[in-house]
Amino acid sequence: MAGDQPQEVERPDYEQIKSWRSIVTLVVFILANVVVLFPFHIPLYIPRRVFNIICDGLSALRIISPREADDEKTESRHGAGKVTSSFVRFNFPMNMVTAPLIADLFLLAILAIGRKEVKEGTYGADNIFPLDIMLFFLSLAYIAISIDASGIIRYLAFKVLQWGGDAGHRLFFYLYAFWFALTSFVGNDPVILSGTAFLAYMTRVSSNIVHPRAWIYSQFAVANTASAILVSSNPTNLVLAGAFNIKFIVYTAHMIVPVLATGVILFPFLLYIVFNNEALIPRVIKMHELPAEARTRKPVNPNIPHARGTAEQQEDAAGEQGKLLSLEEIINPFLDRKGAVFGALVMAVTLISVLALNASAQITEENPVYWVTLPAAFVLFIWDLSFGWIHRHETREIARKGREELQRLQLEQALRRERERMAHAAPGERFASSDESVSAQVGAPSGGLEPGGNVLGKDSMDGNVTTTGTTPSKSPTQEFRGAGNEKSAAHGSLGESQLQKPPRRATLVSLAKDAFTWSQETFPTATAVIAHLPFALVPFAFSMFVLVQALVTKGWVPIFAKGWDAWVNKTGTIGAIGGMAFLSVILCNFSGTNIGTTILLSRVIQAWQVLYHFKETEISDRTLSATIYTMALGVNYGAFSTAFSASLAGLLWRDILAKKHIHVKRLDFATINLPIIAIAMTVGCVVLIGEVWIMKDDTPASDRYA
């Protein structure tokens, strides 16, 4: 019930904001959010002798490998930055994970906050329980990402691509509707993970789509629009529903009409106004043709390391070959049918159970919804492990072959570069550094070779290129053992002594890398899902909860609530909708993503209710409902506004595009999204006004559910 208040409510103390600790708390909160918006690195210089002592100590404990000889012109091997004279430079990140945490530690150090704020910011207070929210979100995220890892999203997107054919506007509509429907079910993260990569490939293999802007921005907007329908689709919805004791089914009933209306109106706005350009959305899309051989080739699981062999590197190359490999990625997608069906079944049962449990629970009962999602995620995790173990021999073989192809390609490239260097070098210099050059150029593919540092060597008995220190029959991470007599002969001419190096001893780091590689090759789906879980959200969310709780106890949130009350008294329900729409979208960009915004605004509205408690009056049901559900629209839609950091989905979207060599600038992100967020919020708020005027009245909010 939105109007429920604790039986004993403390009267707000507005005088405490005058204390220096309260002022520092507000300043620290603002600075932490600025850093989240504009992350940077702090250079730390450590004396080289101290650095060497630390490395030698860690090496003696067999945590890391022994350090190599000092070379002040190269970079350190152990994660350090560039060596400058007698100092080693480390870049300490200041970002969404470290900044709020450092802010909390600083406030603890100056006694601005204490045990109470930390406990209430982690365990929970006033109907907001961060621990429950994180458990619910991470467990549900595992289910959603596991469904994505089965390949079902890319497969369905491929089917939509087939249905759309070469008609550009029709395909744009089909994909728009597909992303909307899918996000409503599984949330925006899986859609961003698979959908963004799919669109990057699709627009690349089209000869008349000049830029992917229209497709990727539309997908991002619709994913963050549809995520407002279900509570489970976005952690912001969980915070909001918990803060005001809103039943999940009641939340959806209030949100579905404004969101659907936004989706309907936004589509023609995107197609005919924002992206009305034949170079962006052509009427007829011309795709490159995929050869019949590639169409009939059995697709491989992309979760297996090096599953595609050299294609992973060659698809980024310019020219026809790179486009064909990208086309194969979308026309011949991998699909684990059993995993997809089982995952979808688990997701459906979980969502239905959560809705039923939440709807049947009494207001005074504590039935955390993670009691449903956590066991469901565990069941799916066991399925992923079992499926991986049953097919471990097949997946390990695929990984081995792919690793061999990559090593062969790297060896050929290294030899080619060495021949070119020697052809242009002076006669006396040709053999001076050939051994060192090839040793440096022939490296292991990322995540594929033994982390112990095995290097390519030459077997004097059979003349083949081999690696030392690994027995192929003992490990799925076995090394490549043959690259052809011709290559090994050329390699041998460059100097055998430099390449014959003993294998490095095992260390904690190398064992961890080995274990991760083994896990990737044995349990590819489970490992990929865990690697994609938004673990960075956990420290960030807890730190932000504590920071906002500090604002509550230091008197700032009651001050904000007093200002909000003055605004609503002057402007009424319409003003509450307009004001909250503006605040929620703006604060998403300047208050630690949409999660931080939801936490802060939820506390402000709760404090606003407390004000009316001491006025011995009640907020009207119409005004309170309008405020709450406008905030729900704003914190979801605000993800596609002016900053990537407005949401975690925005940061993920940007990083995926960067990996596909599509670099989105901050200014472009803001200018393109500005008209989109304007029309989306306008439509959503107008429909919400009609909804609250029809469904709500001026009775006190405490007399009915929100």
UniProtKB/TrEMBL annotation:
Under Pfam families, the record lists: CitMHS
Which ranges does the record mark as transmembrane? Answer: 20-42, 92-113, 133-156, 176-202, 214-231, 251-275, 340-363, 369-390, 529-552, 572-590, 626-653, 674-695
Q: Which GO terms describe its biological process?
A: transmembrane transport
Q: Where in the cell is it found?
A: Cell membrane
The Citrate transporter-like domain sits at 98-359
Region Disordered, as annotated, extends over 298-318, 420-502
Which intervals carry biased composition (Low complexity)? 466-477
- UniProt keyword list: Cell membrane, Membrane, Transmembrane, Transmembrane helix, Transport
State where composition is biased (Gly residues). Answer: 445-455
Query: Could you give one GO CC term from the UniProt record?
Result: plasma membrane
Q: Which organism is it from?
A: Thermothelomyces thermophilus (strain ATCC 42464 / BCRC 31852 / DSM 1799)
The protein's name: Citrate transporter-like domain-containing protein
Membrane protein topology class: Multi-pass membrane protein
Out of the domains of life, which is the source?
Eukaryota
